[in-house]
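PT: before anyone asks, these are the final sequences, not the draft ones from last week. 555 residues across everything. Please model them as a single complex and drop the result in this thread when it's through.
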Amino acid sequence: MDRLLEILSENSTFTTKELALMLGEPEDYITAQIKEYEQTGVIKGYQAIVDYEKVPDAGVTAIIELKVTPKKETGFEEVAKEIMQFEEVTSMYLMAGSFDFSVFVKGKSMQEVASFVARKISCVDGVIATATHFMLKTYKIDGMSLVDDKEPSDGRSMVL
Amino acid sequence: MIDYQNFINDSIKQVKPSGIRKFFDIAVEMDNVISLSIGEPDFQTPWHIREAGIKSLEKGKTWYTPNRGFIELRKQISEYYKRRFNVLYNPDTQILVTVGGSEGIDLALRAVAGQGDEVLIPQPAFVCYEPLTSMTGATPVVIETKAENNFRLTREELENAVTERTKLLVLPYPNNPTGAVMEREDLEAISEVIIKHNLMVLSDEIYAELTYGDKKHVSIAEIPGMKERTIIISGFSKAYAMTGWRLGYLLGPVPIVEQITKLHQYGIMSAPTTAQYAAIEALKNGDEDIDEMRSSYDIRRRLIVGRLNEIGLTCFEPLGAFYTFPCIKSTGLTSDEFAMRLIKEKRIAVVPGTAFGECGEGYIRISYAQSLKNIKIALKRIEEFVEELKNEDKG
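LR: through. Structure below.
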């Protein structure tokens, strides 16, 4: 993977000046490169990684496994488009294995999520079965550990 | 009551404790400190290497190895040094597997230097050469390398330091703490002096894999006429992030390795067995890991050097190891004051240059074996610190 993307995907808060230093390229080049990534959709956006356990009233997240009947002509696409439009759905993936879609849903409470699954998702044409799993604790998101602020390398000691 | 001082060997009493530790010990006591003071990789040993060690344990391979190390490992070391640095050593007679590079340094010094000899040590340099030399009974003679020469050892500096008693030159490049390297022309220049005065060289090449820019590390053993006068020290700690495994090696002329092997045999017997299995895997399949880590260090190196120069702590471009050695003279503080205030006021731990020799005064060592995220935060705090110092002057 391109080094610039690698760095940004880990931490998007570096300034173009810092990125230019790190990669040994002119700042203009970095700016242009990022712009190109944004325009071609390689970079979709920039978000903060939030530890919701530290946020009061942040609600709950569930992963819903969905089995669906693919449609003639469009296959899974049509069902996917219908489900992803709900704003409760935060992420969605087509899967290989014993079910078809993995859908991440956020809600204020378990009841709210359960009701959303029953009333909205289950009713989508093509959905055969759902299985709802509530997340209890987050350990790691996108390569970032939420368990302990200390990095593993902080255990190093000064020996000489 | 027993007066223990009477029981302790005088030459040991005279050894000074290392000056690096002081700041680390302070850092440990404080919260929210970012340490740029540590001299070991922040990476963990690559998994396939760890796995090889684990597998050997599962199979119950828990015995001593031959004194010199497994022959399979020595063969791999031989191939590796040829492949990466173009010098060939015979696995049967010219290679000794040691407990880290440190054991190799100690043994080589003890085998070569003794009462009445002088050992030349270019500084700033890693802290162990001087005390270990003193303990052999030989006299350490410091050569102060200069920032204007990018901390390289020059022919003139070497020539001026040689006396009739000089026996050995320690050559610590790529250098800790300065990040300096010796290029082929530099090595050729000093080699003439070494040959002319019939000296031996202890070439500490532990950072050989960590060089940046177009040029790879050149071993002085590759210079014509020098292999027969050179003892190379290297190891797995820095290249493969294997510090805790305690494994290194020594390469040299047959009669010298033979003598050194006796010391190793009586003092250590054999290097750790599990580590040797892991090291075989490292040498066989670890080249990519090295490249990956080097490229990550390089990104941090560029960021730190660029930003330090902006902040006003001028910094020559280090081409090796994972340290920068910025000049702090513009702040008006001594190295010690700077490091002490930086940790107390901004919670950033660095090592004063004086820990690496008196000529390190006016400099600090910053290690970039630290995550980019922390480096970014640390640089910001250093910038604030330097700004506040400027305002103090005005006030």
